[in-house]
Structure formats: structure tokens, C-alpha cells
Amino acid sequence: MNRGWTLTSSVAGAVVVALDGTVLTVAQPDLQRELHASFAEVQWTSTAYLVVVASLLVFAGRLGDRYGQRRVFGLGMLGFGAASAGIGLAPGVGWVIGLRAVQGLFGALSQPATLGMLRIAYPPDRLARPLAVRTVAIGLAAAAGPLLGGALVTGSGWRAVFFVNVLPALVFGLPALLGPDRRPAPARTPLDLPGALLLAVTLACLVYALTARPVSGAALALAVLTAALLVRHERRTASPLLPAAVIGSRAVGAALGILIAVSASLSGTLFVATYVLQRHLGLDPFASALRSLPLAVLMVLSAALCPALLRRRGARRTTAGATVALALGVLLLSRTTSPAGLGCGFALLGAGFGTVMVAATQVIVRRAEPEVAGVAGGLQQTALNVGPAVGVAAAAALLGAGTGPALLGLACLAALALPAARALPGPAGTVPPADTRGEPVPAGGPARR
């Protein structure tokens, strides 16, 4: 698999999805006015996508492992582009909601494959740099999304933000789908369809419960029930959806928990910060975006520097230090509204999150053998979808006590990742903690496995 093409495609696939989410937020007011939609219907244009994509990511990763990451990526990109074009032509909000769910289906196919392709193309000791490039691109997309969305909506209307997905979907999807796919020989074990269904229902109910206002207790209860059934099923089936080689690693489980905690803290903090900037300080959306710009800048810089940190300090210390920086950023935002204080707080958020993204993702992806790289990518993407839903739900619940206590609670949420960081690999040459759920954890962040 050509490494240059693989890295470019992985970055493009991640950027298209990241941009789609950020520009949609800008486009929603115009969409609501033109289609005469209710506020609840506009919310469902986001919720429908989130529920579908979160519920299918792991199974989509398994499909990539079985049928080829490159081809599944190509199918996902082409389907995402086609659904985007359909939304741009939609005559009513019902069509938009339905096609956003279809977008979620194809987004679930493409996203684990962007990581699975990298794992196949690069040896484990060289994964940190392409993952850093991918994270830098996502950070730039997050920063540029509101500006691009604003320009498109102002110049051409809300439909333009969906048509912009079509060209990159064709450019990267067609070669991936039609070109040769030199992949490891796939395991011909049966697909675990019952496990896939139970996991999909669990994640769909969890994400819906957390994004509903108020939080849906019935959906949460159903998620707990199906999760228990999933655990029972996976322990008994001969070909589990979640292979022990991936979820049996203490380091991988810790990295997934860290991603959930820090992404929850970041998303919840941004939710509260938007309230502070626009309601308490009276800033307009553009001025608010300028105040939070250090977050995107430091996220990009920290992701670029993370491979060097991993070589010198290992994933354990790098992730712990970055988590502390993120928690300190949340604490600073809870105590100041001055421009300098806000800038420092957002900078710490970006530096912490960008570093954790690269370090934790590297642990998850490099520990997966190429034959199960898609499942590993699906788990990483699932963590980054569930975390923000948890964070925003926690922030909404805590806001009743005031913005200060809410941010303090979100800082504590980030701090939950610190004990988990002890399970991550240390620098090369050190002896890491024993992995009690599998073989001993290999030493070293980017060192040879």
C-alpha cells in the first residue's frame, strides 16, 4: 500500500468528516429558516448522524478488516459524498434528517478505515508521525470550519456546505474503491452479527440518551441492559466482534478511557465557555471564535510535537502531562474572564487535547495487529463520539449550579484520566506495568513491539 497515498487519503477522509460537523453548526439557522423547521427538527439533523455513526463504527472497522480497509474507505467516502449531495437537494427537513442518518452510515465505514489503512501501511515504530499529521489536519479543519461555513452560507446558502463534500469524496473514494488492495490475508471467521447488533443498540441508546434534553432515562436503562447482554454474548461466541487481542490489552483499555475522559472534558468545557462568552460577556459568535482561537493553534502545534515527546518520554508520561495541562486549562477558564486569561485557558486546552489525541491513538492503533486494525480504529472513533456526548450532558446538568462549579466538575472529569495513564507504555527501555488481562505490555512508546 503506497504510504503517501494512504496518508493523504486518511487525512482527507478525517478532514471531510470534521469539516462537515463544524460547518453544519453554522448552517443550521439558515436551514431552519428556509425549510421552516422547528428547533427540535434542527437538533435532529445533528442527533441522527451522531446516533448512527457511533453505533456502527466498530462493526464497520470489522468489515474493513475482513474485506479490505482501502475498499471500505472508498465505499464510505463515495456514500458520504452522495448523501451530502442529496442533503443539498433536499426539499424538506425530514429528508435532511434521513439523509444525515445515511451520512452517518457511510461516515462510520470511512473513519475506522482511515486509521486501519495507516496501521497496515506503516510499521508500529513509525505510526506516531502519520497520526500526528492526521490530528494536525483535524485541528486545522476544526479551526477553519466555522469560517468556511460562514463564507459558504453567506455567499451561496446552507446547501453549499453539503455540496462541498462531493468533490473530495469522488477524488479519494473512487481510486480507493477501484484500485488494488494489497492487504493481509483476511480471517475467514464468521462476522459476529448478534454482537454487532447488541453493540449498535447499546451505543445508539447511550448517545441518544446523552444528547436528548433532558437526558433519557429509558434509553440509558436500555443501553445498560444491552451492554450486559453484549458482554455475555462476547464471552460465549467463538468469533467475537471485539477480539481479545484488542480489548484484552490493559493499555488499550486505558487509552480508550483516557480519550473518553479528555474529549468529554473538552466538549463540556466548550459548551460552558460558549455560554460564558456569549451570554455573560455579550460577545457575538465571531468575537467568541476569536477568543477561543488559541485552542486550535495549540492543538495543531502540540500534535506536531507529540511524536518527539513520545520518543523521549513515552506514552505514559506524555499523556499524563497533557491531561494535567488540559485540566489546568479548564480550571483557569473557571476563574477568569479576562482576554489574557481566556487565551491561556484555551491554549492549555488545545495543547493538552492535541497531545492526548496523538499519544492515546498511537497506543490503540500500534498494539493492534494489521488483521484487526479496523476494530481498533472503530473503538478509537467510538470513544471520540461517546466522550463529547458525555461531556455536554455533564455540562448541561452542572450549569444549574453556575458556570464556575460546572467547569470545576469538568476539570475533575479530565483528571479521571490520570490513573489510567499509568497503564500506558513508558519510554524505551523502561519496564511498564504488567498487563493482567493478556501478555506483558511491551516497553516503549514508539519502540519496537
TrEMBL record:
Residues 6-429 form the Major facilitator superfamily (MFS) profile domain. Keywords: Antibiotic resistance, Membrane, Transmembrane, Transmembrane helix. It is a multi-pass membrane protein. It comes from the Bacteria. Pfam families: MFS_1. GO terms for molecular function: transmembrane transporter activity. The chain crosses the membrane at residues 42-60, 72-97, 131-154, 160-179, 215-231, 252-277, 289-310, 340-360. One of its GO terms (biological process) is response to antibiotic. PROSITE patterns: MFS (PS50850). Residues 428-449 are annotated as: Disordered. This is MFS transporter. GO terms for cellular component: plasma membrane. It is found in: Cell membrane.
